[in-house]
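To: structure subgroup
Subject: Chain for Friday's discussion

All,

I'm putting the inputs and outputs inline so they're searchable in the archive.
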Amino acid sequence: FWTGTSYIESYMDDGPAVFSFSAKDIANNIGTSIISGTEFSINNTVYVSSGGYVSNSDGTTVYVPAYACGENIHIRIAVPDKNSTRIKAILPSIYDDLGMKEISGVNLLRDISATGDVSGKSISAFSTPLTLTIPYPDTNHDGLIDGTSLDERSLGIFYYHENQGKWILEPDDTINTSSNTVAAAITHLSL
């Protein structure tokens, strides 16, 4: 008996997809009862009337409550390249303005966006707060971010304010040291 979990990342487009799977047991036998190549439809719409969760395989999750905005939405969670031109241009301000230290070797940046299902327009403000949860690595649960000497209790969720050109700390973030996550109630989306 085999079970498994797979994710369709939130940055994937809606539409048809094909599931393919192959597996071998310890004796190198290929399973014959596994059906692969079945077509299914991807639909990552969060419906305004019910709300919902969008999660990626890294554990980053956005919870959208019902009626947080005026139309059904598609939420995209991406991990931006820290070496991209845009990130290189804005990242130093979090260190300079707020005195934060870079977590080398760990990319906890997330670029989160929402698009209206009908309008196709970018939606960045919400009438009811969404909950953003981002995991961080601490596999041995010693209270330090893996590969660093940074205490997990010093983490926070920041967003980049495009108009002001600076990073702003979300005031009510919560660190869960048991699940190694930091979460915040947010009313807008950005980097």
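Points worth raising on Friday:
The mean pLDDT is 79.
The first strand starts at residue 15 and ends at 19.

D.
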